[in-house]
Amino acid sequence: MIDEFASTNKLPAFRLKQFNEQFYKSAVNSFDEITNWPAALRENLSKSEKFSVLKIDKELTSKDGNTVKVLFKREDGQRIETVLMQHQDGRNTVCVSSMVGCPVNCSFCATGKMGFGGNLTSREIIDQVMHFQRFFKKRCKNSYQCCLYGYG
């Protein structure tokens, strides 16, 4: 996303570094929060790029509050799940989808019954991670592990 925008707009390398610092490390909630960029540049970015390519379709939290499951809707209408598990020992694990459905179709697995809808783009995978990066930022937690699952 940002590499193409930077190239098209002939941005100097320091602008890319600023973006990465704000978007990934600071986990901003919108391009408007990239305050080390001029307003005109942020506006240009907002017009040419989506902040997230995934939309939250549904979010469920377990009764004990330790598990959060987010159902995201892709631009093509297909849905994927991302799950946060907050363990009693203080560990936090985010399980990120890498594909829609599964091509293996194991007899014991509900995901396989969906069929295979394709692999996710790197942007879709990053959007899942960043959703929970922002989730943790709001809760003053900055430690979690990310588990990439591709079903099958």
From TrEMBL:
<protein>
    <submittedName>
        <fullName>Ribosomal RNA large subunit methyltransferase Cfr</fullName>
        <ecNumber>2.1.1.224</ecNumber>
    </submittedName>
</protein>
<feature type="domain" description="Radical SAM core">
    <location>
        <begin position="88"/>
        <end position="152"/>
    </location>
</feature>
<dbReference type="GO" id="GO:0070475">
    <property type="term" value="P:rRNA base methylation"/>
</dbReference>
<keyword id="KW-0411">Iron-sulfur</keyword>
<keyword id="KW-0489">Methyltransferase</keyword>
<keyword id="KW-0949">S-adenosyl-L-methionine</keyword>
<dbReference type="InterPro" id="IPR058240">
    <property type="entry name" value="rSAM_sf"/>
</dbReference>
<keyword id="KW-0808">Transferase</keyword>
<dbReference type="GO" id="GO:0051539">
    <property type="term" value="F:4 iron, 4 sulfur cluster binding"/>
</dbReference>
<keyword id="KW-0004">4Fe-4S</keyword>
<keyword id="KW-0408">Iron</keyword>
<dbReference type="InterPro" id="IPR013785">
    <property type="entry name" value="Aldolase_TIM"/>
</dbReference>
<keyword id="KW-0479">Metal-binding</keyword>
<dbReference type="GO" id="GO:0030488">
    <property type="term" value="P:tRNA methylation"/>
</dbReference>
<dbReference type="GO" id="GO:0046872">
    <property type="term" value="F:metal ion binding"/>
</dbReference>
<dbReference type="GO" id="GO:0008168">
    <property type="term" value="F:methyltransferase activity"/>
</dbReference>
<dbReference type="InterPro" id="IPR040072">
    <property type="entry name" value="Methyltransferase_A"/>
</dbReference>
<dbReference type="InterPro" id="IPR007197">
    <property type="entry name" value="rSAM"/>
</dbReference>
